[in-house]
Amino acid sequence: HLQKKRRAATARRQHLKSAMLQLAVSEIEKEAAAKEVEKQNYLAEHCPPLSLPGSMQELQDLCKKLHAKIESVDEERYDTEVKLQKTTKELEDLSQKLFDLRGKFKRPPLRRVRMSADAMLRALLGSKHKVCMDLRANLKQVKKEDTEKEKDLRDVGDWRKNIEEKSGMEGRKKMFEAGE
């Protein structure tokens, strides 16, 4: 029973697919016929039937008219090509901006450069600006006051000596004796 349903669904799908294809083919044929009719109408409007005159002077006049039309059409073609190139370039620029705004461009690997603050400011502002970045010049002068902590630290002395004194068995003996 389940296989019959599957077969029916598959057959229906195939039938719908073929019907859609037939409809698409007929639509394409209609479009092609409409384009052909439009082309014939345009040619009939813009290209009158050619009537060849009998005398040499009339033929020369006809040739001059045809050359003038060819030149005007060629100028129009050139103008439209230039417009197309301009709009294509504009479109490429806008798409590049859009691509950049999305942030999907690959960032180049940056090299680490050692540079002083003066050199960095010179690079950013140009060689005209002579800016001196002496960071210590802007610091406040602070007078040292002897506090109790500093005196205690001076009395303790070098911490390495204290560790050497307390290391080993002698140091432990001194700590044990001091603890009593």
UniProtKB/TrEMBL annotation:
* Native species: Syrrhaptes paradoxus (Pallas's sandgrouse)
| The encoding gene | Tnni2
Q: InterPro entries, per this entry?
A: Troponin, Troponin_I, Troponin_sf
Signal peptide stretch: none
Q: How does it assemble?
A: Binds to actin and tropomyosin.
Q: Give the molecular function GO annotations.
A: actin binding
Q: Name one GO cellular component term.
A: troponin complex
Q: Does the keyword Acetylation apply?
A: yes
Q: Name one GO biological process term.
A: skeletal muscle contraction
Known function: Troponin I is the inhibitory subunit of troponin, the thin filament regulatory complex which confers calcium-sensitivity to striated muscle actomyosin ATPase activity.
Can you tell me which family this protein belongs to?
Answer: Belongs to the troponin I family.
Coiled coil ranges: 25-104
User: What keywords would UniProt list here?
Assistant: Acetylation, Actin-binding, Coiled coil, Muscle protein
Protein's recorded name: Troponin I, fast skeletal muscle
